[in-house]
Specification:
The complex is a heterodimer. Chain A is mainly beta. Chain A has a single domain (about 5-645), classed as Methanol Dehydrogenase, Chain A (8 Propeller). Helix content of chain A is about 5%, strand content about 30%. In chain A, the strands form 12 sheets. In chain A, strands 1-36-37-38-39 form a 5-stranded mixed beta sheet, with no helix packed on it. Chain A is globular and about 65 Å long. Chain A starts with a helix and ends with a strand. By secondary structure, chain B is mostly helical. Chain B has one domain (about 20-105). Helices cover about 80% and strands about 0% of the residues of chain B. Chain B contains 4 helices and no strands. The chains are: A mainly beta, B mainly alpha. Chains A and B meet through strand 35 of A and helix 2 of B.
Chain lengths: ~650, ~120
């Protein structure tokens, strides 16, 4: 039976929760994991998530709830690497980079895979590096980059180059290393400063991309990759690699599948960022779903380590534990962000925990030493597939606390959209299969809520470790998944008429149609809100507040604030109790009071900030920097190359 | 200023013309809404509003034309104000409403004067 062993194991874990907590706690004050080799400055922002714990937390305290309303633009920079596609231009660009502040420099990675080094107080260019990457959208709808990574030697050799290195990956899976002071290639890294990750690709039919910068720890780079989802039934094994930071040589690679499994499916790659606990020398991986994404007939054996959060020994890549978050995933519910590591104080004890957000809008709070839940997780019976050849897991893990961000049932049909569509939404809904969350894809067509865009997207949440508050933005998305029998797909393909929302899943008995549940005007058929921001007390698991977040903008018109906005991107939090976040459709940056959820400041951006902001202090001034690149999923055609820093007036 | 009808007429024309300029600014320069369909719609609606205001106030057309233009203007004021509100263009919202106020004064004054003995 699919997932039975996993189900029983997880149920046992839930029952053993209280004793597990007691056994796996440590005494002492709350402290976040600190890298041991090169201590990071919490006044800076030297990794994708701010620090290795993925807290997205800063001790910078110049900007406070009392003065944030005075925040003004300090500088602005345009990379020039932006394209709307068409007319012989490069494909559309998705500029999703976190600005990195290290070495008294702001480093930006662009969608053309260039690195730009900027002065932190003026945004003036120090140097640029251009790998002359191939500008083809091999695995994505457009050119996408989430920026760069930074490493520095714990024992720098004076006069030698590349004692501090900046890394950027490319759409065709090449990883470049350049000197952080000069932008020149590090000759000792791979061949002429480049490592081709395709050498670990077991099936070159399936292209790989390095869109997410590596996670840097000690003298290692942890590298995951993105593949071409939805296109093939069988794909390469989603190895995670550990490379030497100076030479690029392989130290270990981790296979996310159990021994002997995964040969008929593949992927379960780690395409999002990772987190590291130096105190236990553990790297945590958000492992994505196996292939094919919407049909599991080729992988009916138990695969308890995929669609999981997985802990590995950082030096060897040996599996410590893996907790599966979706059994037999047929929704493309990849684990999609670095787990946030935090120590939870409870009753005089300090519990080493992690918070893993998911596309379903769940927050799993696990003991990071064991992977066991800290708050109860129940195995809930779920609707079963009626697709010939596939078999569902009878249950799925659902956290009792923190309360799921997205409700079990969809909110119902939007009256406005139904009227504007002359009843189209109602008519279509009546034809669809829908039985609450985890309704499986079907040949008749299923409504999926929340769908693969989330829930929570790849930015994940942020935590204030002092207050014990976790903050996360989420969307409420609704899509239709319809499996297309292969013969029907081939017939349409032969006529040259495959719709753009049909995806081949080549090799599988079915192709799949994936589309948003909207009327002919593009209006969502489901009721608002479409996005929220939530704060959770990690001591109790209870929500402190939940507010609609952002504004939907369509044809220039802003919808009511109570509707919220679909969001992609993530917040950061500061010691002073501020949340900074872009992420919404309305191209605004916001500062929000962590205690109340009230918006205290808004800043104007050229496009939605589909990214994580960064904050740092330089020359006694605190800056908050956003990259505003836009994304076709949020506002089609509204793309930018803007990097903008805000600060208090002098 | 000769009477309240003229005053209302000129207020209508001035507010409509300013609304048109504000809509042009929004379309070409305003943050967040420039070159959007919504800002294009209000450029069109305020242009129509200005032309209709000039015709109805200065040209003194036939009664049926005044009635058609009057009804059209009411829809234009309300539609433009509503669209501008959802564009977060509050200046344009106010100008559309002021134009509506001018039109109201113009119409009421006109009706009152028509009832006066020759």
């Amino acid at each position: 039976m699919i997932g039975r062993a996993v189900m029983l194991a997880t149920a046992g874990v839930a029952l053993a929760l209280a004793s597990a907590d007691a056994q796996q706690t440590t005494q002492g004050p709350s402290q976040s994991p600190q890298p041991s080799a090169q201590p990071l400055d919490f006044q800076g922002w030297s990794t994708f998530n701010g620090d290795l714990a993925a807290e997205k937390y800063s001790t910078n305290a110049q900007i406070t709830p009392g003065n944030v309303a005075d925040l003004k633009e300090a500088w602005e920079f345009h990379t020039g690497d932006v394209s709307l596609g068409g007319n012989g231009k490069p494909p559309e660009t998705y500029f999703e980079a976190t600005p990195i502040f290290a070495n008294n420099t702001v480093y930006i990675g662009t969608p053309y895979y260039r690195i730009v080094a900027l002065t932190p107080d003026t945004g003036k260019v120090k140097w640029t590096f251009d790998p002359h990457a191939e500008l083809k959208a091999l695995t994505q709808p457009g050119m996408k980059s989430r920026g760069v990574a930074y490493w520095q030697s714990a024992n720098p050799v004076p006069g030698q180059p590349c004692q501090k290195i900046v890394y950027v990956g490319t759409m065709d899976a090449k990883l470049f290393a350049v000197d952080a002071d000069t932008g020149k290639r590090c000759q000792n890294f791979g061949t002429n400063g480049m490592v081709d990750v395709n050498q670990w690709n077991s099936d070159h039919k399936f292209p790989l991309s390095l869109l997410q910068p590596p996670t840097v720890y000690k003298n290692m780079l942890f590298v995951g990759w993105s593949g071409k989802d939805w296109s093939y039934e069988r794909a390469p094994i989603g190895y995670t690699l550990a490379l030497d930071a100076q030479t690029g040589k392989l130290k270990w690679k981790y296979n996310p599948f159990p021994p002997g499994a995964g040969q008929e499916s593949g992927t379960a790659d780690v395409w999002a960022s990772m987190s590291v606990d130096p105190s236990t020398n553990t790297v945590f991986l958000p492992v994505s779903s196996p292939s094919a994404n919407f049909y599991g007939g080729n992988r009916k054996e138990p695969l308890p380590t995929v669609t999981s959060v997985t802990a590995l020994d950082a030096d060897t890549g040996k599996l410590k534990w893996a907790t599966q978050l979706v059994h037999h995933d047929v929704w493309d519910f990849d684990t999609n962000s670095a787990p946030v590591l935090v120590n939870i104080r409870r009753g005089g004890q300090v519990i080493p925990a992690l918070v893993q957000s998911t596309k379903m809008g769940f927050l799993f709070v696990l003991n990071r030493l064991t992977g066991q839940p800290i708050f109860p997780v129940r195995e809930e019976p779920v609707p079963q597939t009626n697709v010939p050849g596939d078999a569902s897991s009878p249950t799925q893990p659902v956290p009792v606390l923190p309360q799921p961000l997205v409700a079990k049932r969809w909110p119902g049909i939007s009256t406005l959209a139904d009227i504007a569509g002359f009843g189209q939404c109602s008519r279509e809904f009546r034809k669809l299969r829908y039985e609450g969350w985890f309704t499986p894809p079907s040949i008749q067509g299923s409504m999926i809520y929340p769908a693969t865009p989330g829930g929570v997207e790849w930015g994940g949440g942020a935590v204030d470790p002092e207050r014990g508050i976790y903050v996360v933005n989420n969307s409420y998305t609704d899509q239709i998944y319809k499996l297309i029998p292969r013969a029907e797909y081939n017939q349409r393909k032969a006529k040259g008429g495959v719709p753009s929302d049909w995806f081949e899943m080549q090799g599988s008995p079915y192709a799949v149609e994936v589309r948003n549940f909207t009327n002919w005007l593009g209006m969502p058929c489901w009721k608002p809100p479409y996005g929220s921001l939530t704060a959770v007390d990690l001591k109790t698991g209870q929500q402190l507040w939940k507010e609609p977040f952002g504004e939907v903008q369509r044809w220039g018109f802003y919808m009511p604030y109570s509707w919220g906005s679909i969001t992609i991107g993530a917040p950061l939090v500061t010691k002073t109790g501020l949340i900074f976040i872009g992420a919404s459709m309305d191209s605004r940056a916001r500062a929000i009071d962590i205690n109340s959820g009230k918006v205290l400041w808004t800043g104007r951006l050229d496009a939605p900030a589909v990214s994580l902001p960064a904050t740092y202090t330089y020359n006694n001034k605190q800056y908050v920097v956003f990259t505003a690149g836009g994304n076709h999923l949020l506002v089609p055609g509204k793309l930018s190359d803007q990097v903008i820093a805000f600060a208090l007036p002098s | 200023m000769r009477n309240s009808q003229d005053w209302g007429g000129w207020l209508l024309i001035a507010a409509a013309a300013l609304a048109f300029l504000a809509a042009l600014y929004d379309f070409f320069l305003a943050w967040g809404i420039s070159y959007s369909i919504g800002s294009g719609i209000v450029v069109f609606s305020t242009a129509v509003m200005t032309i209709a205001a000039l015709v109805i106030v200065l040209a003194r057309p036939a009664r049926w034309v005044r009635i058609v233009l009057g009804i059209g203007l009411v829809l234009d004021f309300l539609g433009t104000a509503l669209a501008a509100y959802f564009l977060d263009s509050y200046l344009l919202t106010i100008l559309a409403l002021v134009a509506g106020l001018g039109w109201l004064i113009f119409v009421l004054s006109s009706n009152g004067r028509a009832e006066q003995p020759a």
